[in-house]
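Title: Comparing notes on inverse folding

I've been comparing how different people in this forum approach sequence design from structure. To keep things fair, I'm posting one structure and asking everyone to reply with a full sequence. Here's the target:
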């Protein structure tokens, strides 16, 4: 093939690419807006009367109950989501204080159980403080074994000591901290 023929082919290919490039629709370009007559403004309407002021409903108290293992004041991993939800629900709400009331089951001496219930309340207080709730606004209270929720359900189950697993399991609902936040 002669060099002049090659140059002719190259020039024709370049011209063809240039024509295609000029005629190819541009994807980035916005189509020109259609010209239409401007719509007439609707006639001015009378403003509607303002609705009567809504009196806010008093916020419902936020409550939760956190359970503990036998003879333990450590927040269990399974109970942590309850505390997380409680902390999230009271954020942004007006409340005077949070009450954290600790309880124990009836196994053990009353004085020991009173101290254990206080340690449970303090553990919940520390957890909530870690979630952004002001620790000074959390009131810690200890009830010990005085306010059982199991009642008569766990009577006559044998010796009341740490070796009686059946009784310990039955009394699980008594080992708790009850939380409430209200105005």
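Reply #1:
Here's my take.
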């Amino acid at each position: 093939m002669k060099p002049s023929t090659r140059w002719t082919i190259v020039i024709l290919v370049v011209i063809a690419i240039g024509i295609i490039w000029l005629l190819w629709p541009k994807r980035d370009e916005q189509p020109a807006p259609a010209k239409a007559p401007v719509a007439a403004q609707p006639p001015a309407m009378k403003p509607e009367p303002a609705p009567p002021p809504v009196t806010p409903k008093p916020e419902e108290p936020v409550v939760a109950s956190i359970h503990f293992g036998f003879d333990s004041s450590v927040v269990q991993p399974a109970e942590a989501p309850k505390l997380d939800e409680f902390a999230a629900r009271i954020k942004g709400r007006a409340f005077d204080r949070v009450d954290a009331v600790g309880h124990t089951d009836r196994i053990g001496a009353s004085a020991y159980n009173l101290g254990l219930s206080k340690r449970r309340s303090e553990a919940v207080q520390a957890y909530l403080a870690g979630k952004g709730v002001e620790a000074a606004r959390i009131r810690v209270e200890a009830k010990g074994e005085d306010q059982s929720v199991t009642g008569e359900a766990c009577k006559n189950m044998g010796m009341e000591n740490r070796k009686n697993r059946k009784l310990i399991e039955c009394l699980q609902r008594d080992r708790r901290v009850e939380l409430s936040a209200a105005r």
